Backbone:
């Protein structure tokens, strides 16, 4: 019989006390192996949400979740292994641009991504909008991809962090998602399992992010970095602006189109300058972390050169082919609707979360995890903050299918914008680098 | 499909907002009928424990739990129906004294009691220590007892407050017992289901009570009274002292012995003056509530007269007989152990909860609900606060069986007492009456 009584551990956290490493290990392990019931786990989760956890407790929680499954070991592969994690935003497709840049430059990128839920999209869904692209590789196949391309883009496997999977599903239905220590442990346990040496974090704040203020985002960034470093990784965290969608495209196939345009540096690439800039920044930090350059600034220049030389696009094409995807044949929406500006002036603010929900109305994402995505659905934002508009000028193009509720999506989109007579100040995209 | 999403209701409470009557009804009803899982209920319970509930929410919760089962209707029985509820103490056997007093005086007492758990005893266990006494009557049999004796002493039936039963079992294993609104709703839903017109509450504070301070107990008393009144009952609440065990006897058969002595007013009755006094006070309030006297003071005098006339004992004997019990044949403990005072002086404090646990060591109660009680086990407290003791003088007699761990019980008992050179001030037994 265990020396731990679950209700006593719950009460300890409920009363605001710190749990010991052994108590956390016992509770999480017993829950994962099924000997501790859901109802005790959900009571503890609510107590954690309301009473918090110290960084030390969060570290123990992360480590317990990490070791609930396989921890990948790529030490046989030559080169520094590095990944990026973003806390999620609307139109955020930087992973698909920076990963081929960094792999082409000589580091190994074992990228395990998730699906989208709520107003933010998931890298895996975007990839699967490429016809034939497979993300369900086994760990053996993943290793082969990494050996051949220094890059692999796959989804969570059942071997990795089973505790996180089980706990996340419970948090989703018990109102216990929005807890900083639980978020930290969930993110970091999965990243630490990837067998990486370094990690770049993109912590977003603003109307489209989970963290609405810079202060909250900065606090989360420091915590994630601390947990990563306690786990033995080198970590750099970025605080970046999510006051408006990143780039122009929102929606799975549309975002791939934007990525391809940036990677090819084609005639439309100038439309997506903000997305390119952030991708190169993050890639630069990864290259610097991996020791290919001795400063962050030189890392950025190296990243830029791999983008401009076409070597990054070449790597992207190669990994798409290797994972079964056909980039030549991206699906297009059969129906469109243009949103016209109701007034003249400048776009002054964009409620990015509202815009995310407008894209959900069209079918670009999931409200609940069983929802099916329409890959071609989405929004092309023609005007962003600071852009001048005439009354009746196109603001955005909605992409959808014949049955799409364009009216509802238009109304949600327009409700998310404000207009003013003078050009607003624009905020920098990257607010801070915490190295 | 229901318009309510359980996780949204949990989040609302988690964020400190008030739930509506409809939300509470939906959540509790769905949990009771099994369509809402334990893990969502336990998350809500923890959020309620940590974020609280307004009196209005507590009223809605009480009413929903009340109407989850049968609400008894004794309107066909002549007379005011009244009951008493105590928040639980050590040696508290007033129910068994006041119930026959009040019934003999002409009111109807439909008393539905619970079993003991932890350091406080349960009325039902005490009754069952009387050989042959049955507490498992059906509601039809209960009605017959009330018609014949104006009194019935039974246990919870499955028809009454099934929601409370299910929720209480969950609270017990999820660290969510110690919540004032949940405690209020649990107590009051069961009492409101009894078909009573009035209720007297005995809210205890001190070392043996759930509420350690008078302020906390007073706040609980006001809440319980409010919920009872919103439920249409007349309620009087007492704040009473539980700084030491009530009376002398702790343990089931021993407590019946004390009750019989008080009811018979025999040669030992003077040993139990505090218990008699509180019982008569509470009975007096019940008689006043029931309109038999126009003041609380006159109620007390009426109660005292029914005790002294022997009519209360007669009623107690009759109800025991009617429920199968044989008072002539109370069991006695086969083994005893006397605790001697380690020092001279005065008994200055008694940790009543500690003394309750000493009685648990002997088998007088349950630590978990599946434990089996030894009816003859218990403690006779010979010295109480303010009593002078000589070194080596008997402090208490432990009652048990041959295998009882008298040493452990003695050590726990002695650890619960302090001695001093000067006689301490004693606090009044009844601190306040909230009418």
Residues:
């Amino acid at each position: 019989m265990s020396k731990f009584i679950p209700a006593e551990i719950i009460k300890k956290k409920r009363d605001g006390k710190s749990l010991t490493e052994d108590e956390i290990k016992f509770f999480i392990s017993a829950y994962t192996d099924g000997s501790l019931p859901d109802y005790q786990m959900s009571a503890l989760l609510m107590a954690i949400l309301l009473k918090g956890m110290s960084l030390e407790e969060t570290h123990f929680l992360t480590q317990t979740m990490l070791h609930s499954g396989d921890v990948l070991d790529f030490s046989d592969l030559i080169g520094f292994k590095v990944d990026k994690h973003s806390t999620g935003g609307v139109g955020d497709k930087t992973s698909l641009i920076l990963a081929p840049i960094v792999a082409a430059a000589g580091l190994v990128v074992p990228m395990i991504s998730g699906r989208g839920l709520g107003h933010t999209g998931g890298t895996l869904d975007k990839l699967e909008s490429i016809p034939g692209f497979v993300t369900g590789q086994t760990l053996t196949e993943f290793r082969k991809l990494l050996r051949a391309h220094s890059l692999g883009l796959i989804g969570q496997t059942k071997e990795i962090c089973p505790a996180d999977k089980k706990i996340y599903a419970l948090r989703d239905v018990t109102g216990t998602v929005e807890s900083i220590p639980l978020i930290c442990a969930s993110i970091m346990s999965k990243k630490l399992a990837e067998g990486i040496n370094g990690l770049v974090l993109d912590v977003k704040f603003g109307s489209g992010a989970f963290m609405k203020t810079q202060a909250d985002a900065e606090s989360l960034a420091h915590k994630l970095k601390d947990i990563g470093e306690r786990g033995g990784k080198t970590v750099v965290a970025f605080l970046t602006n999510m006051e408006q969608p990143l780039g122009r495209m929102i929606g799975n196939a549309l975002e791939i189109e934007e990525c391809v345009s940036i990677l090819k540096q084609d005639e439309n690439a100038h439309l997506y300058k903000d997305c390119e800039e952030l991708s190169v920044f993050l890639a630069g930090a990864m290259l610097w972390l991996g020791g290919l350059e001795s400063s962050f600034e030189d890392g950025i220049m190296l990243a830029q050169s791999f983008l401009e030389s076409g070597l990054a696009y070449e790597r992207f094409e190669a990994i798409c082919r290797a994972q079964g995807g056909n980039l030549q044949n991206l699906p297009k929406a059969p129906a469109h609707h243009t949103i016209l500006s109701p007034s003249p002036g400048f776009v002054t603010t964009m409620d990015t979360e509202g815009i995310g929900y407008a894209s959900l109305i069209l079918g670009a994402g999931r409200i609940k995890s069983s929802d099916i995505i329409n890959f071609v659905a989405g929004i092309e934002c023609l005007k962003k903050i600071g852009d001048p508009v005439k009354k009746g000028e196109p603001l955005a193009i909605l992409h959808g299918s014949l049955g799409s509720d364009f009216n509802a999506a238009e109304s949600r989109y327009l409700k998310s914008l404000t207009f003013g007579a003078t050009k607003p100040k624009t905020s920098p995209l990257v607010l801070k680098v915490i190295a």
Summary: The first strand of chain A starts at residue 82 and ends at 86. The two ends of chain A are 46 Å apart (CA to CA). Chain A touches chain B at residues 6-8, 10-11, 14, 37-43, 45-47, 49-51, 170, 172-176 (CB under 8 Å).
